[in-house]
Amino acid sequence: MDNKETNEKVHKEYAALETVPQSERTISFLDMLTTWIGANANNGTWYVGGVVAGATFGGAVLVTLVSNPIAYIIMALIGFIGYKVGTSTMALTRPSFGVRGSFLPSVLNITQFIGWTAVNTFIAAISISFILKDIFGLPAYGSNGSEKTMLIGIAVMSILHLISIATGHKSVKMVEKIGVIFILILGVWETVVVLKQVPLSKIIAWRPPSGKVMDIGSAFDAMAAFSLGWVPAIADFTRYSKSKKASTVAPIIGANVGLFWFAFVGIIGAIGTAVTTGVYDPNNSDPSTIVSKLGLGVIALLVIILTSTTANAINLMGAGISVTNLNKKIKSQTALFGVTILAALLTIVPIYASSFLDSFEMFLDYIGMVFGPIFGIMITDYYLVRKKQYAVEQFDDEKGKYWYKSGFNLVTISVWIISVIIFLFMKNLPMFTKTIGAIYPIIIISAILYFISSKIFLKNK
Prior knowledge:
The longest helix has 34 residues, at 103-136. 72% of the residues lie in helices and 0% in strands. It has one domain (27-358): Orthogonal Bundle (Hydantoin permease). It has helices at 3-10, 29-40, 43-52, 56-85, 94-97, 103-136, 147-164, 169-197, 200-205, 216-228, 234-238, 244-277, 287-294, 297-326, 332-347, 349-352, 356-385, 410-426, 430-433, 439-457. It is mostly helical and 461 residues long.
């Protein structure tokens, strides 16, 4: 093999169904650790921290410390499957949903990650609007005539995204390593600034005004949906990991460290701003607005832009690789560039539609509703039904065990539909909104329904 062929092999980005051989698994424990710190130490985490601040400081911290570790244990369980089998997360849905049935979670996943990219891009574009205001006097986000400024910000972020996914997981790994250093510096910086301006005792004692209180169960669901949003991307990375610990322990530690820190920054930032201004508005929980009000300057805004790039590199990877599960003829790199353009177009919608907060909360509901049952089914299928045995060579076989009826496992799809309906019924019931929320219960319910139905209907599969 000559140097050119070797170089192409090293930089190859495997499609959804392709199994990554052990010889080409290049992601170490440290790589995975920094990847998931960078994934969560970002403006989206900051924003969701500000949103759940409506549950008071104590409630928001409780939710952060309880809800997210559960989500990342679920992520590690699926990450391990990716490490053992060697394919992407969406390819791993084929044994349970069927070869063609896996298109359902794949389409949902594409929309989810494009949606997350749009969320982070919008928040970063707000930062760019404040920078353009300081330099050129253009109207910043929230001011009259700010639409054009936001469009410029979206264009700038889209260019940065294209650069960040230029060589697939290789460039993503590099972006995360660089970004995590600056991200952690900003986290320390804002924490110190907020606590200097507002004593922690006042932040703890603060209570949201009537009408803006968030129920603890709703806060649980918001945090759960936020963290579970990463799960569909995990195997896209763990299939490149060198060891079991790199595919399970490292993501748990990295994701929790990034989230705990930046959610805490978002919580104290939103509450600290409410204490100093006398106004609590979760619509203004985005880091750019808070940074501007705290007077942290252009450098802080630039770091926020960087955090968007590190998080969206993973979002775009998840969306792009899912596209290749729909059609194996599509090249990974082509899919990555395609979803980047789609995400840029979607980011424009909140500028002219409803409030960004409303769009954000609807998006979190969507994630919990459609993906909670999928995760329950996937974990149950691999660990309990199949006993950790997947025949990867049959993932695309029309005569294989995962073909079912015309490529669809109607039993699994029925379980998923029933679970979604149950979630819609549960999510507004006081017994869930006042306690643990509905997302984790529906994961357990879907797992039980799938286990029972698979034993009844899929005995020979």
